[in-house]
Amino acid sequence: MAAGATLTTCSSVDKATAARDFGTETEPVHGAHQAGVATPPQTHAVFVALDLLPQQGRGPRETLEAVLRLWSSDIARLAEGRPALADTEPELAHLPARLTVTVGLGPSVFDRVGLAHRRPRSVTEVPGFSTDRLQPRWCGGDLLLQICADDLVTVAHASRVLLKNVRAVTRQRWRQNGFRHAHGAGGSMRNLMGQVDGTATIADAAGFDRLVWDDGSDQPWFAGGTVMVVRRIRAEMDTWDELDRQSKELAVGRRLDSGAPLTGDLETDQPDFAASRNGIPVIPPNSHIALARPRRADEQFLRRPYNFDDAPPAGHITDSGLIFATYQRDPARQFVPVQRRLAQSDALNEWITTVGSATFAILPGFRPGEHLGQALL
Amino acid sequence: MAAGATLTTCSSVDKATAARDFGTETEPVHGAHQAGVATPPQTHAVFVALDLLPQQGRGPRETLEAVLRLWSSDIARLAEGRPALADTEPELAHLPARLTVTVGLGPSVFDRVGLAHRRPRSVTEVPGFSTDRLQPRWCGGDLLLQICADDLVTVAHASRVLLKNVRAVTRQRWRQNGFRHAHGAGGSMRNLMGQVDGTATIADAAGFDRLVWDDGSDQPWFAGGTVMVVRRIRAEMDTWDELDRQSKELAVGRRLDSGAPLTGDLETDQPDFAASRNGIPVIPPNSHIALARPRRADEQFLRRPYNFDDAPPAGHITDSGLIFATYQRDPARQFVPVQRRLAQSDALNEWITTVGSATFAILPGFRPGEHLGQALL
C-alpha cells in the first residue's frame, strides 16, 4: 500500500498550498468548559456512543474513572498535535487541524455507576414526539465521544486511538459521521436539502452563560458542563425534490438562494413574523422558522449541526440528512417546547424524519493535571 | 432544520477565510481525457458502481446511451459550478471545489448492450490472487461513477443529482467513500496505517501517454480512455497496532516518520535495493516497496488512493483501509504482475486484506456538444 511504481514525485500541489496550511492549528483543550461546544464548527465530526461493559473484579465506577483518565490524557495530547500515549500511528497526530474531543455521559450511566443521586435533573432522555420514528440503533448510550476537526484523517486517527484504548470495557452502540463545507471553501453552512442552516446561533459569552453552560445550582460538580441532545434527522429527499421552489421556501420561511427570511433580503435579517400581504402572513405561521422562533427567552439553544450522507440501503438512492447536535442548560425548558411545536405542525415535517435521539451530560472542562469527570467521581 | 433560536449571527470565521476561499476553483471538464485521473487528487471521493436494469420497450444500448447523454450534460454543468438541468438544490452547485466526475463501463456491460466486439481486450476483471478475500458486495458493476472534490457537500450534491436522474434504469451495486488530507491542511498523503502513501507516481505527459492513456490501437473508439482497477483493501488495524515500529518499517521498506526508504533520508529519495549491512539487505526483499518495484518498464500504473473509515460492524473498533484506485493502459501487463508478486510474499499481507475488486473502462473524454461514449455507441 505504501509505495510502488516509480517515475517522478509530484509535489507542486503541496508547495502551492504550503503558505496557507491550517493543519497545525489547534483549539485550546483545557478550561472551565470542554472544547467542541463553543468552538466554531470544524468541517468533520464523528459522534460515537458507547456502552460500558460489565467487568470482573472492578466496579463500573472504577471502570468509568479509568476511561475518563485515559481519555483526558490522550485528548490533551492529540488536541495539541502530539501523539497519544502508546500511539501506534504517531505520525497521524501531527496535524490536529483544530481537533476537539468532547465527552459526555448518558443518563443511564449514573445509575450504572451508583451515582444516581449525582445525575443533574436536566440530564434525561427527551420525551417522544409524535413525528419521531426512532430506531434503537441510533438511540441512547452510556458514553459519548464527539470528535471534530477540519481534516478527516485527524478525526479517523483520534477516534481509532480513543476507541482502541477502551475496547475491553466498552461496546460501540452507534456511530454517526458528519460534515459541513470544507475549511476555506467559503459559503454558509447548507444542509443537503439546500437550505442555509444555522444562521441564528449563540455567539457571545453572556448568551453561553445564560443558555448553554450549567451553573452548578442543581449539582455543583456539573458547573461548566452542558446538556447535549443529538437527533438524527433523515431528509426525505425523494419527495422533497418533487416540491417546487416556492413551496419549499414557504415550508422553511426562508429563501433558498440567500437564506434570507421571506420578509428580508439578507441571511442576517431578522424575520418579520407580523408582515402580511393581502391579509396573508408572508412567513406562514406553520413554516419552520415561525414555529422554531422562541416564545419565551429560554426557548433557545446552541445548534451545531452536521450533514450526513451514508451509503443507502438496497433500492434507495440516498441516505442523507442532518445530525442535529444541540447544547443547552436544560432541554426540558429549552429544546422540548420548540420541538413539541415543530412536531405538531411544522410544514417541513413531511420531508424530515427523526430516526435517532440521545442525551448526554457534557462534562465540565478540565485543567492540566486534572481529568474529565474528576468532580463527579 | 433551517433556522431556530435567534441571538446574533457569527460570521467572523467566514470573513477570516474569505481571502483564500477555494470553493469556486474548477477543473477543466472537456478534452481528450476525462477529468479525475490526471487531476491532482481532491480531498474527497465517492465511488459508486451501478448495474443497468432491464427496461420495457427500450433496449439496453439505448438505455446506456441515454444515461451517458444525461450525465455528460450534468457533469459539464456541475464541474463549472452551475446547477444540473432540473437541479432541485441549485444552491449546492455553486462551490464546485475542483469537482470531477469520471465515468466508466464494467466488462459485463459490453455484452449486455450487444457490443462485446467493441470491448477493449484490456477491460476484463483481474484474476484472483491468493490473498484475496473478495466479498461480492464490493465487486463488479456495469457502470462506475467516481465523484471527487475538495468539499464533501459538493460531492454529496453531485452524487445525489447524478444518481437520482438514472434511478429508473439502474440499481446501486456498491458505494465507497474515501478521503485524504484536507485541502490546505498540509502534509503528504498518509494512509490510516500511518504510512506515507503515493510517493511514487506518474507526473508527466509522456508518462501518462506511455502508461495510462489508451492509444486506440486495439479499439479506436477507446483512444484517450484508460482502464481502472479499484481494489478495496481493509487494514487489519488491531494486529498492525501490535507490531513494533521497526517491524512495521521493515514490512513496508520505508520509515514511518519521513516516508523515506530505509536506505535514504527523504521521502523523494530513490530506494537502494542493493544496499546491505553485514550482508543483510537494508530493504528486505519481501518488503512492500521491494516487491512493488517494477521489474519491467511497463509494470507501472497510476495510483490515486483514498482512505476509508466506515462505521464498524458490531463488536469491532474500526473498519478502515484503502480504496486503491489505479489507472493504466493494460492491467494484465501493468497491474497484475505487481499484484501477483505482492500476493506471493509481501510482508504487509498479514495486515491488509483485499475485500473488493472491480475493473472499468474509463471512457475517453468529451468535447462541448459531445457526450461520453459517443464514439462507442
From TrEMBL, chains A, B:
Pfam families: Dyp_perox_C (PF20628), Dyp_perox_N (PF04261). SUPFAM superfamilies: Dimeric alpha+beta barrel (SSF54909). The keyword Methyltransferase does not apply. Keywords: Heme, Iron, Metal-binding, Oxidoreductase, Peroxidase, Signal. Its cofactor is heme b. The keyword Ribonucleoprotein does not apply. Coiled coil: none annotated. InterPro entries: Dimeric_a/b-barrel (IPR011008), Dyp_perox_C (IPR048328), Dyp_perox_N (IPR048327), Dyp_peroxidase (IPR006314). Residues 190-365 form the Dyp-type peroxidase C-terminal domain. GO terms for cellular component: cytosol. Residues 34-180 form the Dyp-type peroxidase N-terminal domain. GO terms for molecular function: heme binding; metal ion binding; peroxidase activity. Belongs to the DyP-type peroxidase family. This is Dye decolorizing peroxidase. It comes from Mycolicibacterium rutilum (Mycobacterium rutilum). The lineage of its organism: Bacteria, Bacillati, Actinomycetota, Actinomycetes, Mycobacteriales.
